[in-house]
Write a structure and sequence with these properties.
The complex is a heterodimer of chains A (about 110) and B (about 110).
Chain A: E1 4-7, E2 10-14, E3 19-25, E4 31-37, E5 43-50, E6 55-58, E7 61-66, E8 71-76, E9 85-92, E10 99-101, E11 105-110
Parallel strand pairs in A: 2-11
Antiparallel strand pairs in A: 1-3, 3-8, 4-5, 4-9, 6-7, 7-8, 9-10, 9-11
Chain B: E1 4-7, E2 10-13, E3 19-25, E4 31-37, E5 43-51, E6 54-57, E7 64-66, E8 76-78, E9 87-94, E10 102-103, E11 107-111
Parallel strand pairs in B: 2-11
Antiparallel strand pairs in B: 1-3, 3-8, 4-5, 4-9, 5-6, 7-8, 9-10, 9-11
The chains are: A mainly beta (about 110), B mainly beta (about 110).
Chain lengths: ~110, ~110
């Protein structure tokens, strides 16, 4: 059951530029999370934003949530080579429910 | 060094064979999860367990089985009924009712 869908599917930018990726979802949610996955590795949790929040920051990460448009964006500022990875959004529809992952955005930082 | 371990890193399955993937955590988490990831795809939930001796089917449970006899361990068996088992398998855990999941490094299953 697909809930979140990331856009774009792939993104290549120069090191030092900002990277923005988006996530759209279909039903109302309790919270939305972003995870990072380096090639061939497990996922790492980046940030969680609740349905009553509009923006959160964590280091070089900025996440926004627009519940009226059912969408979220993840901004990575001053990108680095180490940011090359796939980024997934995951939504929790109801409290204590399982979370549903999107298909991800593949980010490639060019030297 | 707390975390989740999965073994083996690579696993080869022969036709008609059952294979078991190991997942262990020392985070004292109540809930554990198994996901399947195909190339270029997101994660699909196979099974999850929120408490010892109890587990629920996810979206793609057919051809898989699990057990949860201990809090720290949640092994996944890929049975011969799973006709397309080649994939990357990820195990995760969280606190009971927890929102954030912590992932292991994954096991890549290949069919000979």
């Amino acid at each position: 059951s697909q809930q979140g869908e990331e856009d774009p599917q792939a993104l290549s930018i120069q090191e030092g530029e900002n990277a923005t990726m988006n996530c759209s979802y279909k039903t109302s949610i309790n919270n939305l999370q972003w995870y990072r996955q380096n090639s061939g590795r497990g996922l790492v949790h980046l940030i969680l934003i609740r349905s009553n929040e509009r923006e959160k920051h964590s280091g070089r990460l900025r996440v926004t949530l627009d519940t009226s448009k059912k969408s979220s964006s993840l901004l990575i500022t001053a990108s680095r080579a180490a940011d090359t990875a796939s980024y997934f959004c995951a939504t929790e529809v109801n409290r204590d429910d399982k979370i549903i992952f999107g298909k991800g955005t593949r980010l490639h930082i060019l030297p | 060094d707390g975390g989740i371990t999965q073994s083996p890193k690579y696993l080869f399955r022969k036709e008609g064979q059952n294979v078991t993937l190991s997942c262990e955590q020392n985070l004292n988490h109540d809930a554990m999860y198994w996901y399947r990831q195909d190339p270029g795809q997101g994660l699909r939930l196979i099974y999850y367990s929120q408490i010892v001796n109890d587990f629920q089917k996810g979206d793609i449970a057919e051809g898989y089985s699990v057990s949860r006899e201990k809090k720290e361990s949640f092994p996944l068996t890929v049975t011969s009924a799973q006709k397309n088992p080649t994939a990357f398998y990820l195990c995760a855990s969280s606190t009971f009712g927890g929102e954030t999941q912590y992932f292991g490094p994954g096991t890549r299953l290949l069919v000979l």
